[in-house]
Write a structure and sequence with these properties.
The complex is a heterodimer of chains A (about 160) and B (about 200). Chain A is an alpha/beta fold and about 160 residues long. Helix content of chain A is about 40%, strand content about 20%. Chain A is built from six helices and seven strands, in the order H-E-H-E-H-E-H-E-H-E-E-E-H. In chain A, strands 1-4-3-2-6-7 form a six-stranded mixed beta sheet. The chains are: A alpha/beta (about 160), B alpha+beta (about 200). At the A-B interface, strand 5 of A face strand 9 of B.
C-alpha cells in the first residue's frame, strides 16, 4: 500500500515536472522522421510552416499562423511550425522565443544538414529560402515560398474546408 | 476562340517563365558593374586571366551566410589561384536590412580579411537576373570563348552546421570537375538559406 502511494506520488511529481519544464521542449527530427508530417491522409488540413526564430520575415508572419490555429481550433485544421533553428541554439534561443511569445502551435525542429537531399521532398518548386509554407489535405497541396498574411491563410484554409 | 485560348496560354506560360526567372546551368551569364567595399567598381571583364568565377550571393546577418563565410574564404584561397576567384555580392535591400549597407559590408570584409571583392547589388538587379533567392546562393561561371556560361548553381556543401562533417563538398567537386575539363555532377543543388530581403 505504502509502495503504491509512493509510486503514484512519484508519478504525479514527474508529470508536474514534465508539464512545467518539458512543455516547450520541441521534438528534434531528421527529415526521414519528419516526412510523414507532410503526408497525413485524413480529414484534417495541415498548415506546415518552415521558419526560424532568427528569420525576420518568418517571425513577422508567425502571428498569422498563431491566429489561424486559434480561430480554427475547433475545426479540422492543424498548424505545425517546423523550425530550422540551429540545434545548438534550441535551448539558448528557440525555447526562450517560444516561451516569450507564448507560441500555442506545435513546434518541431527539423535537423538534417544536407538539405539538398530533402528540399525537393517537401516541394520541387522550393528553392530553399525561408519562410516557406505547405498547406495540404488529402485532396490537394499548395506550397509557397514567402510571407503569408492572416487573410491569405484564412482564404486558403476556408477553400480546403469547403 | 482557339486563337484566344492559345494566346492566353502563351501569356500565362510567358509570365510563369518570368516568375521562375533566373539562370539555369548552360545559360549565358551577364556581366555587371557593382561597387566594392574598397570604393572601386568591379566587373567580371576586369579579370582577363580568370577561367571563371565563383559568384556568391551572400549578406552580413543571415546565420547560414555567417556559417559559410570562412569556407567561402577558403574556397577563394584554393580556387582563386587556379582561375576561379570568388566574387561576393550582397543583394539585400538596405532599407529593410541596414546592416547590409556598404559601410557594414566594408566592416565585415575588414574584420574577416576577405581576399575577394564584396560588392553591393545597389539597384537590386543582378540577383534578379541571376535568379538568386537566398543567401548564400552560388553560381559558378566559366569562360567559354568570349562568353560566361553558368556551370553550377546551388549549395556549397552538405553541412552548414559543421565544416568538418562535410561529406559532399558540392561546390568544390564542381570546380574540380571543371578544372579537369569534365562536367560537374551534380550541376544543381539546393540548400536552406535566408530569403533575399526585398520590398
Amino acid at each position: 500500500m505504502r509502495f503504491k502511494i509512493i509510486t503514484s506520488t512519484g508519478l504525479v511529481i514527474i508529470w508536474l515536472l514534465s508539464s512545467f519544464t518539458g512543455n516547450h521542449q520541441p521534438r528534434v527530427l531528421s527529415f526521414d522522421d519528419f516526412e510523414p508530417h507532410l503526408h497525413f491522409s485524413n480529414d484534417t488540413t495541415y498548415v506546415v510552416n518552415f521558419w526560424a526564430s532568427w528569420c525576420t520575415p518568418c517571425v513577422k508572419e508567425l502571428p498569422a499562423f498563431e491566429k489561424l490555429g486559434q480561430e480554427y481550433k475547433n475545426e479540422k485544421v492543424k498548424v505545425l511550425l517546423v523550425s530550422l533553428d540551429f540545434p545548438k541554439q534550441i535551448d539558448s534561443r528557440l525555447i526562450p522565443f517560444i516561451e516569450k511569445n507564448e507560441i500555442g502551435s506545435e513546434v518541431l525542429v527539423l535537423n538534417d544538414p544536407d538539405a539538398n537531399k530533402w528540399i525537393d521532398r517537401v516541394d520541387a518548386t522550393w528553392s530553399g529560402s525561408i519562410p516557406a509554407t505547405l498547406i495540404y489535405n488529402s485532396e490537394s497541396r499548395l506550397f509557397r515560398e514567402g510571407v503569408y498574411s492572416y487573410d491569405e491563410l484564412k482564404e486558403i484554409v476556408e477553400q480546403k474546408l469547403n | 476562340m482557339k486563337k484566344l485560348i492559345l494566346s492566353l496560354s502563351l501569356a500565362i506560360l510567358g509570365s510563369a517563365l518570368l516568375i521562375a526567372g533566373g539562370y539555369k546551368v548552360g545559360d549565358k551569364a551577364a556581366d555587371f558593374k557593382l561597387e566594392n567595399v574598397d570604393g572601386n567598381y568591379v566587373s567580371l571583364s576586369d579579370y582577363s586571366d580568370a577561367s571563371g568565377f565563383i559568384v556568391v550571393f551572400t549578406c552580413n546577418g543571415c546565420p547560414y551566410a555567417k556559417a559559410y563565410q570562412d569556407r567561402i574564404m577558403d574556397l577563394d584561397k584554393e580556387y582563386g589561384p587556379q582561375g576561379y576567384p570568388v566574387i561576393a555580392i550582397n543583394p539585400n535591400n538596405t532599407e529593410l536590412k541596414p546592416d547590409d549597407d556598404l559601410k557594414a559590408m566594408k566592416k565585415r570584409a575588414m574584420d574577416k580579411g576577405y581576399t575577394f571583392p564584396y560588392l553591393k547589388d545597389a539597384n537590386y538587379e543582378v540577383f534578379k537576373e541571376y535568379g538568386a533567392t537566398r543567401t548564400p546562393h552560388i553560381y559558378v561561371l566559366t569562360k567559354q570563348e568570349s562568353e560566361l556560361v553558368v556551370s553550377y548553381i546551388g549549395a556549397i556543401d552538405d553541412n552548414y552546421q559543421d565544416a568538418s562533417s562535410v561529406k559532399e563538398p558540392y561546390l568544390a567537386n564542381a570546380l574540380d570537375a571543371l578544372l579537369a575539363d569534365k562536367d560537374p555532377d551534380p550541376v544543381f543543388t539546393k540548400a536552406i538559406g535566408c530569403s533575399i530581403k526585398q520590398k
